[in-house]
Fold:
Amino acid sequence: MVELSIIIPHYNACNLLIKLLKELSIQKTDEVEIIIVDDSKEQIIDEFKNIATVIHNNKRVGLSKARNMGIDIAKGKYIAFIDSDDMITNDYIEVLLNATKQRSEDVIIFNWADFNENIINRQPQNYAVWKAIYKKEICPRFYEEQWYNEDVFFQDELKKLKHTEYFIDRVLYIYNSNRVGSNMWERDNRWLNVKQ
Structure:
């Protein structure tokens, strides 16, 4: 049974995506599926078809539609969203799988760190969808006509739904607030194993 579906929309961040996929390949188990929705027609991503389902779009569809395409085919009990230019800690999957098996809440939220600002955001209140995972049965869809601030619509729709939440007091996600170059994760991997 798939516990966790990880949806990664991609557009013009191939080098960073490859670094992310290498980290995910180390952590992935049979209970996790990875879905990449590619708006860039980057064939090099196909090298990761052994660990991921790769969808290449003929034209750019935007982040909202790409995420919805991932939701449509996801088989997991929970859905996670990772942006292709961000990174995860080296216990991201382990911690989340433990939570999905031990908890029953609809939304599981966790801390995240800003790579460029050296800030840890605890009990985050921002709109970012990647700060949590969501039971597929209650996971809202994104408004496909919206190409900016897509997460706001998603979170507003989630608020309308009766749902339960659980918080994990660990940094699991590393946000790239200012994409500084394709070698950023090679240059500095201090966040991969965050000291809690």
Q: What stands out?
A: The CA atoms of residues 117 and 177 lie 8 Å apart. The radius of gyration is 15 Å. The longest strand covers residues 165-175.
